Amino acid sequence: MKKVTVLGGGIAGIEAAIMLRQKGFAVTLISPRNYLYIYPISIWIPTGEKSFAQTSMPLGQLAKKHQFKLVIDEVVSIRASEQTVELKAGGSYSDFDYLVLAIGAGKLKPKGAENTLSICGEPEQSLQIKARLDELVQRGSGNIAVGFGGNPKDSSAVRGGPGFEFIFNVHNMLQKRNIRDKFTLTFFAPMVSPGARMGEKAVRSMDIMFGKLNINTHFGIKIKQFESGGVRFEDDSLLAADFTMFIAAGDGHSVIKASDLPQNEAGFIKIDPYCQVVGYENIYAVGDCAALEGPDWKAKQGHVGEVMARNVADNLANKEQGIPERKSYIEHLSILCVMDSGNGAAYVHRDNSMERILMLPVVGHWLKKSWGTYYKLSKMGRIPRLPNM
Hints:
By secondary structure, this protein is α/β, with parallel strands linked by helices. Helices cover 27% and strands 26% of the residues. It is built from eight helices and 24 strands. The chain has a five-stranded parallel β-sheet with strand order 5-2-1-9-20, with helices on one face. A four-stranded parallel β-sheet has the order 13-12-11-17, with helices on one face. Helix 1 links the parallel strand 1 and strand 2.
């Protein structure tokens, strides 16, 4: 039985471990955390609709269910040419026939980033954001700024959707408490048209939502720095804020950047359409750590990482059986999300053939919450998995 080691216990890494086991490989998963953090449903931690535990899954339970070996340790270096991974506690590790990299991405660090918190940062930040919001609610008024940035070296490394969801959910929470009129909410981004990769229809719908909910916007001016009192832009204007939630663009993981793996300008791993790392027969990369090819609007999302993981499992199984067929991730690239607003949602879908946005008042909110339940139950094999979900 061939041995596969998966580095990373996020959405893409877990999918790779599960699917590789189903294909008959002996799998070891190495993760710095002992739980899977489900980022798409973490948006409700700050508003108190979900607890931290409800957005996490113990990796031990997943390992037991799917019979893969679990190692809780931190990867500190990768020497691809030597087929060796260095672990913080476990030392050198090279007990694999294939290596699948799913360690995620780093974050760009704008000046003054310590004055912000991110819903897409380390999981613990969600609790810090909740504490900050609770303080403002207790005070009864305040200015809240929410935004995201881009990476000029890799436009796919952007996470805008959770920012939209966050500000809409905060609006809804304040509305329920009858104090919305005491707060100023502002959404900011250095792009002229944030969210453009979702398509023109989505951008128009977001503009309508901002106006309807009395959310101010500040677009098209680069960010100079973050300060304790708000966001300073390159024209030296200041967006005053008592609290700033900012999602920095993705950047190459520090371990990847320090490795001998082939990388693009932003530090993401170069792969072929079949997720095989360029120049290496037995190393693959999936999810946020990989450099994506494809249309200009492409974005790194969880479902794309899962497609890549499933393809790797199929491709390795075919390789071992001498079957020449290989599956490419590129034809499956799409933007797909249910963008929650706290009292509804918008279904957004874009691929090479179409762009669509469908507003789902009330029911959309419960559909997204239902997806979180479905995700956890299906990963544990307690309910059947729906095709391509």
